[in-house]
Amino acid sequence: MWRREVAVSKELCAGRSLDDVGRLSEPEAGVAGSAEVSLRWILVHLIEEYARHNGHADLLREGIDGVTGP
């Protein structure tokens, strides 16, 4: 399923500029601060969210095995 989602994402981004703009739904716009966001904004936001979730997973792992640091 993940590979299929990655393929669809690549398809949607192919041939687009990072400056291309899309519109968010009203609830999403309230969180983002604007209804119009660029593809660049979307990709940076996804990287931030991915990093945040990896950080959470790392904290859980540290709590289980006690290993910290690199």
Keywords:
mainly alpha; 2 strands; two-stranded antiparallel sheet; 3 helices; 70 residues; elongated
Question: Explain this structure to me?
Answer:
It is a single chain. The protein has 70 residues and is mainly alpha-helical. It has one domain (2-65). 66% of the residues lie in helices and 9% in strands. The chain is built from 3 helices and 2 strands; from the N terminus they run αβαβα. The chain has helices spanning 2-13, 26-32, 39-65, and strands at residues 21-23, 36-38. The chain has a two-stranded antiparallel sheet. The two termini are 31 Å apart. The model has no long low-confidence stretch (mean pLDDT 89).
User: What is the CA-based Rg, rounded?
Assistant: 16 Å
Domains (count): 1
Task: Characterize the overall form.
Answer: elongated
Query: Strands of the biggest beta sheet: in what spatial order?
Result: 1-2
Count of helical segments?
Answer: 3
Number of strands: 2
Give a quick account of the main beta sheet: strands, pairing sense, barrel closure.
Answer: 2 strands, antiparallel
Distance between the termini: 31 Å
Mean pLDDT: 89
Oligomerization state of this entry? single chain
Structural class: mainly alpha
Instruction: Detail the poorly predicted runs.
Output: none
- Strand proportion: 5-15%
- The helicity comes to 55-70%
* Helix and strand element order: HEHEH
